[in-house]
Structure to design on (1353 residues):
């Protein structure tokens, strides 16, 4: 109930006012002060999540071959841009404005509230003007900014899975539909206060609503698009295609970890009271411990299974821990965060070869990390967090069916019209030269040669 | 009026006090609370802008050839360092302390105020001591820190244009003069409350005062220094010299985008009221949308013109959008931010080949991005933002003439004394081996070979 | 007294309450508002310091050879993870809970306070519940988060020195002991309120407690582990082994610089008053100027000594400046920060060849930067900061003896049981292929060839 929370905030503000009348003035945070805290918290958390776009870009740039590196960089900055524009044009309103059970408003261009503009433009601000703004609990566009970076995260998940063979512009069209329509509609069900919210589905910061949505979109895309040339031999052999720049992938993971403090911490949605500050701190700690457990479990598991520790699996372990804790980072015993994150990482370590058996080619491992660990994290709320396990399953399945079906329709429509796959020659040559006419590392020999 | 704003803040604080006497206590942010908000906002925005130094370093490191990469890294960390030191030694006072119409004070070493030191050193703080500090609206050094990272940004712009052929130490001498004298003097005219401010020139976060200043310094430098060997053939042919590491350039762009939230958001200069929080949120959203539009327009324009999308142009499109919105990120209809940013990107796409026709060799495209889009953004305030177009032109021209003339004098003085250009042999060999005696990527073959 | 400070905060809160009764309401920050400021300040500073883990990873990845790059990336994300887990399991309690003179409590699993959980779980929060939480001055887990990233920093220092020849798992065991036991015990002496704190030892943000501790652990490790093959010739010749990716090292340094604003600024430990905001701002400025002076001095010194400016030395100069100012970033005349940082950098420039003479092989220069500059910075508090020079020396020596002895015991125990050094063949082949079975840059020729 990311947005309905507004009502709670208003109630808190009202209580605050009442309290002030009755109590010593020092006891409570003033309503306007709380407004500033809440808004600033959205902005700070929001810029952290925005930076996750760079994290995804570096992670994916490090895990593709160098002949496809510039293209994946372009896709990442382009999808972040498109997500923001589409969410402004129609996405936010579909998700949060006048949501019935299933969908919000079809109004376009989400802009500052009249109350805020009246205050900003007043020659002399009156008490009433300030109160009209403060009543909302936070500034309208700080919330928009924070919500926007979430839809961008969903979009980022898709690019990694489909790298090295998808055409640029059809991919961008999919991102337009995903961020303008698919993500907002399912988001309205829970965070917009729709039917899943009413059933009590609980997803604090989006293990399902953000991560598994990106995962479903990626999974349907991967199936419809097919695997990279040479990834699966005719005899069922799986050919590993190593990433070209592992320090970049490591950097990307660290940036994502950093951004996740905004992702989960900011999803407390308020900072205007001691309760909120304490709760946000708890979220930070759980977020960090789940990721840490993910790294350690992935290292141990790969050591045991493969007799060698795998760096890329350790990175994905961190991400799996983060995705897993995202649905319920408010656990009151931090030890549980270690459990939740560790299991998430174990799922990823086991799922990666499974996907390969199914010949689903996921270049960066985004499906295990965002979809499987996202499902696990959402279930974990029903196990450790006090939510209903049945309701959690209902939410996971409903969102999954809708997003997988909607995505499949879009992918198939694109496939049978403009086409979604580059030519064989382009795939061999690399998308950088084929689609962009340039190279990511023009001076480093071997860029073009491998596989 | 970045600094005069202090007076406004004091007035607000006074009003706050008055209001508290008359109204329910909960209505307004307390003066000391507002002081903390304002100061913390400067620190948070300041560290974001500080990180832009890393963004410029990575952008430039990615766009030069590998034989010049270490040198551009060195220049970037060196110029950030020198900018901070010079601004402490004399720059800040020239810009902000006792500004007449044209210039501030020649005092040296800007340190904490006596009121702040008295409070910090008091055995027991009195009400008067706190009031003396709070009266200023924000802590003195938080403002200095925020202003300092702006002068560093100006300096960062120059290094990219002149990369791959300018000598290290003469370049550093130019940076000393730019950050100690040239930037502060023109800054005093507007943000210091000088003559341009009195005429109503409006430049919210520095499309002109920061970006075009860096652009003019770069442009005069590029003309006086000359193009890189081999860039322009005798027959007028332009030889493209591709950057050696495009994921780094992408990372740099993302870091700059992140930092820009501090750049523009922090330029609200206050966070101590609902009005400020709402206004800062609006600034964040406009900043993001302008950059997003820049990316999309640059992609579309290069697709149309060159039949291929150009990654480096998409990156510069983002930056052009950001520079364009910087003069007026307080637009109250966010759709206008899309227009302003999109036009900025279009200007850059069209201007890059134009500069090449003029044989002005700008390695990273900083002149189109920071100068041309900076001019456009400043004009846009006169078109969309309610400022006077004539006054905006006066500001653009006045700053341009002063900075171009002052820069030209310094560049020419350096050219005819110590020299500013490396030898032909050094340019061939690469500045890394020539000037620093090392290599940026010693193990990757081909580092030395290309072009 | 990082933690005892809590008492001061409570006193301030109490004073605030008293003041409110007697004075106009607008004069002071309310206790709950201060609680939010203090907690949020820990979270923001904490995420900045967390990002330093990425800074160390990139710095070290850039300074090792490419055949050891993936391994150093893995070690960095693993040590950050392990540090957090161990600090949660036992470290924090050893350092901060019920500290006698020498050591804290052996309780396990540090979790949110009962007061906080009571407030969060209440159907309806009472005034008493809020007061019980607010009384602490900041949220319990925000402090834990902030302290945790410090122990992680200590651990990060060790990995760089010992890179390119230490086995993965024994290294991780050392990190377990360092972060669970060694760091917390010596930390209890000062920041936990133990005997060094009572003697008046002053170390604002940890030149000794964090940086020299990491430095001692690294130094003993380097001696016991021995130098890399080929680093020192039989004739006493020192063979330089250049880093493989200098832009990454530059990025790492910029990230560390950014993170240091959280490191030093957050160590003000409070933001709930004008005094704290002003003091934190002063810390930011000193931190920046010390680093800037470090860069400039390192550039000048290498130019004078070697006739060439050395990029890696400039980067280490920045870090030396940062480490040096860390013990006393509250200097009230910022000019002193230039002196402190500049001398720190000079020490590093002179110490690097000295260590080579002693055949102590420190791959990234972490011993000069963190140990020597850390000692210098701690002494500087006795010189410029008003502390007692004798007490500072007592603290430096006591911490040094304890950490060096404890580290040596652990390193030797590991050496004579599981072994700490990879085989000769593995060292030649590179740890990436030997230990992990992969390559950091599989497509770039020459990865395996050099040295």
């Amino acid at each position: 109930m990311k947005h309905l929370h507004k009502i709670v905030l208003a109630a808190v503000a009202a209580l605050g006012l009442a309290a002030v009348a009755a109590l010593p003035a020092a006891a409570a945070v003033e309503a306007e002060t709380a407004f500033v805290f809440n808004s600033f918290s959205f902005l700070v958390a929001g810029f952290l999540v925005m930076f996750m776009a760079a994290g995804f870009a570096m992670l994916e740039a490090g895990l593709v071959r160098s002949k496809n590196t510039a293209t994946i960089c372009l896709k990442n900055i382009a999808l972040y841009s498109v997500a923001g524009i589409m969410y402004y044009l129609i996405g936010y309103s579909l998700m949060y404005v006048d949501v019935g059970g299933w969908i919000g408003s079809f109004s376009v261009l989400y802009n500052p509230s009249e109350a805020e503009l009246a205050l900003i433009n007043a020659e002399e601000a009156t008490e009433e003007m300030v109160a009209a703004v403060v009543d909302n609990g936070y500034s309208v566009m700080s919330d928009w900014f924070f919500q926007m970076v979430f839809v961008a995260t969903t979009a980022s998940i898709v690019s990694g899975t489909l790298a090295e063979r998808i055409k640029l512009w059809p991919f961008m069209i999919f991102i337009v539909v995903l961020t303008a329509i698919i993500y907002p509609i399912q988001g309205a069900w829970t965070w917009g206060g729709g039917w899943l919210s009413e059933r009590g589905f609980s997803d604090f910061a989006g293990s399902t609503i953000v991560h598994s949505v990106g995962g479903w979109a990626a999974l349907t895309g991967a199936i419809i698009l097919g695997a990279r040339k040479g990834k699966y031999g005719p005899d069922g052999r799986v050919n590993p295609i190593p990433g070209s720049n592992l320090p970049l992938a490591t950097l990307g993971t660290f940036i994502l970890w950093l951004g996740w403090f905004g992702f989960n911490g900011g999803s407390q949605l308020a900072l205007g009271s001691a309760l909120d500050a304490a709760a946000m701190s708890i979220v930070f700690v759980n977020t960090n411990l789940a990721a840490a457990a993910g790294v350690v479990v992935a290292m141990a598991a790969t050591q045991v299974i493969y007799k060698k520790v795998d760096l890329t699996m350790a990175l994905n372990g961190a991400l799996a821990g983060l995705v897993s804790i995202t649905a319920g980072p408010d656990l009151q015993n931090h030890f549980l965060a270690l459990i939740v994150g560790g299991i998430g990482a174990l799922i990823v370590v086991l799922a990666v070869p499974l996907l390969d058996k199914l010949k689903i080619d996921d270049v960066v491992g985004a499906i295990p990390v965002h979809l499987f660990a996202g499902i696990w994290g959402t279930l974990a709320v029903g196990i450790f967090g006090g939510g209903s396990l049945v309701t959690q399953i209902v939410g996971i399945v409903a969102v999954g069916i809708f997003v997988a079906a909607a995505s499949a329709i879009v992918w198939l429509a694109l496939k049978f019209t403009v086409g979604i796959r580059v030519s064989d020659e382009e795939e061999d040559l690399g998308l950088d030269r084929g689609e962009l006419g340039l190279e990511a590392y023009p001076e480093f020999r071997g860029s073009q040669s491998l596989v």
User: Anything to note?
Assistant: Chain A is about 70% helix and 0% strand. Residues 3-27, 447-451 of chain A have pLDDT under 50 and may be disordered. The radius of gyration of chain A is 22 Å.
